[in-house]
Write the structure tokens for this entry.
Amino acid sequence: MPTRPEDEKLGLFANIAYGIQHILTMYGGIVAVPLIVGQAAGLAPADIGLLITASLFAGGLATILQTMGLPFFGCQLPLVQGVSFAGVATMITISGNGGIQAVFGAVIAASLIGLLITPLFSRITRFFPPLVAGIVITTIGLTLMPVAGRWAMGGNSRAEDFGSSSNVLLAGVTLAIVLLLSKLGSATISRLSILLALFAGTAIAWMAGMTDFSQVGNGPTIALPNLFHFGWPTFGTAATLSMLIVILVTLVETSADIFAVGEIVGTKVDSRRLGDGLRADMLSSMLAPTVGSFTQSAFAQNVGLVAVTGVKSRYVVATGGVILVCLGLLPIMGRVVATIPMPVLGGAGIVLFGTVTASGIRTLAKVDYQDNMNLIIVATSIGFGTLPIMLPEFYHHFPTWVQTIFHSGISSSAIMAILLNLMFNHFTTGNSQQPSVFGAAAERVIRYTDLSQLRDGDYYLDGKMYDAEGKEIALLPAGGH
């Protein structure tokens, strides 16, 4: 039986090195949610620190479950799990009415419902052809670019130096280091370019006085997570229903991430595998509040890292999960990682998130656009998905449930792509027999540059090109030089 690409074993050193690179890529995102929610709930700094530690610990366990798998749980793909951004606004609203205990109760109840309905979601694989997957992957990258931009500007919009030239310059230097290391001949250095650039950017920031290691030693070295440290969860119908909408969005986004990483890795994702991945997501989300964390989902930026490095092994990401657990048990390690300035993360993020978009475009290039409506499906879905990216306030006057669903460009484009694909490619009754302007295409297209390379007597036979004397002419693959 052939080995799946995701089952490649690279060795302990490579697993640790690439695993650290994955954690550094998503560290800023995984601590942002507990920081924002904790501040909104009025928690003391020490308690917010516990939320952050708990999120690292829960994300690590969820990552190990997703990558290594148990019977019926885990898609066994290189997906890093962490606190989902989708529920931030909803959790802030719930905390204002019932405190952090109401948030934990809503997450547990809604995740349980999500776990029960995963069989329904796992049967939608046939509605995710390359057309839909490419749209979603492209939108994932576009959605993440503003995140990279904010990181490059400093991360904290209230800080005095937010958007300063020094922050942007530091991000630019980090980006330049990534590109320079990627250009070097060594495959190992090229694959570790993001990690090395983060270290180099942090060193430059330290020399420029833009980061501070003095607080690394303050606080406990080891701290075990306390079960229900913030008290027992409280359950409310309204809070659960509002969080259920978030769970549905998370299921859509996780489905998209599973299909995206499957496309990037080059492995099959069927309904059973999708179901196992979604069940792992929901089980992790349901158990996370017991240690003080929130809903768990795959991190899209790490899907980009898989694409940019070409490292497809799930064991690498599982090692990253172990590192996350260690960070959750060893706060001092978390404090070390926290010294990486946000502009450094932003510089690396431009490459990572841009790679996600490029992967989506590559997938869309495989789609047939001749005599069908696929072009308008792509145009409408990506346009619909970019609206909340370009104008975050677009849905502010709509009901909360509408804002929760469509405020995410990923879920917006996914929903639109699925519906339009059904409308035009599955429910074909009523489709016009005449191609519209969006579907019309020439039968054949040959570039002038290609035509100029032909000589009298050249001919094509059985997949090979020959000259007038019968000598074979070398054919470059697509994109070759």
Q: What stands out?
A: The chain has a mean pLDDT of 81. The chain has two domains: 5-426, 446-476.
